[in-house]
Amino acid sequence: MLLLSLFFAVIFAIAVKGCVSSGDSGAAASDHDPRVFNLELKSDRRPPVLNERFIETYLQTFGYLRNESGHDTSEVENSKEKLVNALKSFQQFMGIPGTGEVDAQTSGLMMRKRCGNADIHPSSETLGLWKKNVLTWNITHFPKTVKESDLREQLHQAFAAWEIVISMDFVEVDRADKSDIVISFEDSENDWQRDPTHLTIARASGPISSRVWISADEHWGTNNELEQTGTDLFNVLVHEIGHVLGMRHSPDSGSMMHPLFERTMNQQRPIVTSDDVERLRNLYNVGSQDVEKQPENDATSLNETTSNNNCPKIIQSATNAPDGRWLVFKEDKVWQTLNHTVMTPPIEIFQVLPSAPTYVNASATVGDLMVLISDRQIFGYRQTKRNGQFEPAEGYPKELHSRVLFYPEAAFPLANGSIILLSDNVFATYDLENNAPTFLNDKNVYFPNLPENLISGIPQDAGSDNVYWMFTDTDIYEYDARIQQILNSESYTTFFTCDFVKTFNN
Question: Any idea which residues carry the catalytic annotation?
Answer without folding.
Answer: 240
